[in-house]
Amino acid sequence: MAFGTAIAPARSLRGLTTIDPFRVFQARLNRLFEEPLGTLLPLEPFAEEKLLAAWTPACDVYETDKALIIKAELPEVKKENVFVSIEDNMLTIRGERKFEEETKRDNYHRVERSYGEFMRSFTLPQFVDSSKIIAEFKDGMLNLTLPKREEAKPKMIEVKVK
User: Fold this and answer.
1) How many structural domains are present in the chain?
2) How would you write 149-161 as a 3-class SS string?
């Protein structure tokens, strides 16, 4: 998300700064499809700092002929702190990145990375066979392979000439 998407361009009216309500609505609507629901709750016009404070792992979702693939970046998260579940056709990734306790917070000059619990949820399309999902965790990446049902896979049909 780029900075400033939640704040509409200001127009000057006799020295007063106004906010275009349509642009604020459009920015919030755009964010609805970019951000998980938990970060959309503060709807004040200048809530950008609050939005950036929540830790949400970045995810790539793409489709192949055989499966839907979800890749989640989980740097410095241990495998035992990552949980994947499916309930009511909703796939949920949750876990926690803990702050390094061996280094005292007093010694830090700046802490920009977020720590704590996270959660991402994805509604599964009907063509996913949820009984065959494969989850692999390696080098801070969670790779989920969600195979398509056999009837959803593309099929080649031979064309015969008569």
Assistant:
1) 2
2) CHHHCCCCCCCCC
